[in-house]
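Reviewer 2 asked us to include a model.

Predict the structure of this chain.
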Amino acid sequence: MAFTLGSLLDQEELGLRLVTGEPSSRERLIAGAHAIEIENPVRWLEPHWVMLTTGVRLRHNGAAQRSLVSELDEGGITALGFAVEIVFKSVPRPIVEEAERRGFPVFVIPYETPHRAIISFVSRSLLSSDFYLLHRSLSMQSYLMDALAAEHPEDELVRRLGSLLGSTVLVYSADGQLEASRGEAPAAAIWAAVAEREPALQEFAVGRWFVVSVPIVVRGVIRQWLALATRRASVSEQLARPVIRAAERLLELVAVTRETAAAEERAVRSELLRRALAGRTAAGDGELADRITAFGFEPGQSCAIAVIAPVGGDGADAVAARPRLEALLAGSRLPYLLADSDAQLVLLHGGRAPLDQWLRRLTREGFRLVAAVGRPISTLGDASESLRDAQLALGTLGRDAEPGRVLRFEEFDLATWLLSDLGAERLQVKVDELLAPVRESNMLYDTLLAYLDEDLDLGRTARALHLHPNSLRYRLGQLERRLGHPLRSAATIANLHLATLAERAARRGDGGTASGSSPRSAPPPRGTAAPRGE
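Predicted model (structure tokens):
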């Protein structure tokens, strides 16, 4: 409790009596008391001190008496105590008049009360006040620390802090989103004022609101902002500052704990998904199945693998988008496991995740991503097959797919569905038999891939290969001679489409058996082939 002029005047054994000053004068703080009888007393006093005098140097000098009051008032002195029946029978009239004009407190010290008694009482009271402040501050900080045991520690901490300080409490994210609050205040206007100031403890006004703000820093990065707002600065600064600092450190602890827990959960989800894709559940890995149920999956629940990849091979897009995708997944309450591999995100999700909606949102935020979803599965042992489907579908989307595009297993064309169901390895003998004559020439192999990619359009194929149309016709003629079949035949084109689809899938590694499947990067640019012998 702060020690004030009212506390001093209320001490009856001292017999002090206020003769000038406003009613609010009783609320003036006292930081000490000192008896002075010399000129320019403010040189020997600190603000909020009380000066005691007998007026010995002020006899027959009205100007000096008025000057004393003005000097004390302008020097931030709390009050003047004037002893009577020693030099003056009462407080001199010039002192009373000047004090009344300024609203400055002057109190009478009776003859029976020595200055030392007043000074001693002030000193004891200040020591008691310091002890009270220390005890109260520790009690308030302990009360805040108990919030960490709550189910939602941040919300509970905000509630308790607002209750202790009688103010509105606002917690903002680093970019100004309001994450928690208690009480009423202009949150948007306060954030605008916070954002334009240096990241340190700040005190300022927003309209009629008095605001204190402080950044919550974790590992050198600002994670949140804490702001307290009140219409009156009624809380003792001696109490408010340590409590605000305690709240700041507790919010840092909550943020660190949350980030650590999130990192651990992310690592566990990634590891469980990698184990599921490795096919170990086929051998009856009950422990893995049990651990996955902890993330919301139910036995026999329909699930699917989705692969999310960047358009044009910019792997940074997919990796950078992971936190945003995790936030969307958490908001959907769907069970999921997520891992990244080769600049792609691999997702096992239960239920039908609104990937189309999520990718459109991420596209608006600047991420250029496409996704492919494999066949639905009901056991973890089939996860690698769903992954193979998704990777095969991702390859068919191509590098020029529109951001936000999602291709699902149900949308596969017949050739893609057959390849997904059989696997590229089972087709490899027939693929080699058909394509072997073409593989002998890199030039002809490139031409075949481009011709199929451009839907047999001579003009687009020529432009893609930077050829004259007549040069392209010559190459296509060479292809027909090597293949022994005309390219105008539907059967020939169907066979070549399926064979090159299997060839590309095998090169990416997404068309193999379930036991050999793993997340891979996007296919090479269309119209190109791996180097082969001429």
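The first helix runs from residue 5 to 9. The domain at 415-534 is CATH 1.10.10.2840 (Arc Repressor Mutant, subunit A). We have added this to the supplementary material.
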